Amino acid sequence: MSIKIEHVSHLYGEGEAFEKKALDDVTLEIPDGQFLGVIGHTGSGKSTLIQHLNGLLKATSGTIYYNNEDIYQENYDMKKLRSKVGLVFQYPEHQLFEIDVFSDVCFGPKNLGLPQEEIEARAKEALEHVGLGPDFYKKSPFELSGGQKRRVAIAGILAMEPEVIVLDEPTAGLDPKGRDEILDLVAELHQVRKITVVLVSHSMEDVAKYVDRLIVMDDGKVRFDGTPKEVFSHYKELEKLGLAAPQVTYVTHALKEKGWDIDTDATTVEEA
Ligand code: ADP
């Protein structure tokens, strides 16, 4: 698996009064097996970027290669791409709509036109991955806790057997327990299942803890790209990009405690 994003720009409302360049000449390669974190302030282009990875949004210019194939070429199998690059939206539980948990997880593989036996086998396996046993199969999604609903939504994606899973703020709105459950699950998918993960997060603590590589989006561009250690060493610039200053300070201190060479004495933001 490999994803190559080449000179991708995206305009919303092209040619109209409210035209907005949400991505501006982004070039990025995501190799197999990476755990990539994406951070940036609200409106920096994170959601727009990730919706290009499975073809949900089409670049205004530039192109994307999935396994070295141009996804914009004529007759490209977008349906297959969407099963290989699973996108978990923010608050994915809002998209649970079947009468019970099991039917919901079956929805994706059913759509792929697989035989019934295979659909059910995949749903069972996916639910097992997210820690929901047979007791949950017949429950209505409405009977579940926030963290459980989100796990069902993730199981629905896993049942497609993706090579890449892209999660947009998967811990938003969860309590600390639900949050840890989801992040541990994502870490397990990466480590044990060897799934490539792209994680969009507001929490710099989470990304510092889990990801191999971090990109920072700002005004539709990738401003920083490196290991969390490299990226957080630019803490002053990160604060200027509107990333929460207390969090940046907290994370840089935490990393220093782990023995990282970061000059935390300078993390106080000077009043302009
Ligand atoms: P983020 O995920 O980092 O918050 P988005 O990708 O959602 O950023 O948005 C990037 C920019 O594009 C913002 O200025 C946002 O207002 C704009 N935008 C997002 N979606 C749309 C849309 N459907 N129509 C017009 N503008 C949009």
The H-and-E topology, N to C, reads as EEEHEEHEHHHEHEHEEHHH
The strand line-up of the biggest sheet is 6-7-8-3-9-10
Uncertain runs: 266-272
The CATH topology is what?
Rossmann fold
Q: How large a portion of the residues is in β-strands, by DSSP E?
A: 15-25%
| Overall mean confidence score, pLDDT | 90
- Fraction of residues in helices? 25-40%
Radius of gyration: 19 Å
Reported for the largest beta sheet, the result is: 6 strands, mixed
Total helices: the number is: 10
Structure description:
GO terms for molecular function: ATP binding; ATP hydrolysis activity; ATPase-coupled transmembrane transporter activity. ATP-binding (A) component of a common energy-coupling factor (ECF) ABC-transporter complex. It is found in: Cell membrane. This protein has one domain (2-225): P-loop containing nucleotide triphosphate hydrolases (Rossmann fold, 3-Layer(aba) Sandwich), CATH 3.40.50.300. It has ten helices and ten strands. It has helices at residues 46-53, 78-84, 101-111, 116-129, 146-158, 176-191, 204-210, 228-232, 235-240, 245-257; strands at residues 2-12, 20-31, 35-39, 61-66, 69-70, 85-88, 164-168, 196-200, 213-218, 221-226. The strands form two sheets. The protein has a six-stranded mixed beta sheet, with helices on both faces. Strand 7, helix 6 and strand 8 (196-200) form a beta-alpha-beta unit. The radius of gyration is 19 Å and the shape is globular. Bound molecules: adenosine-5'-diphosphate. Adenosine-5'-diphosphate (ADP) is lined by residues 12-13, 20, 22, 40, 42-48.
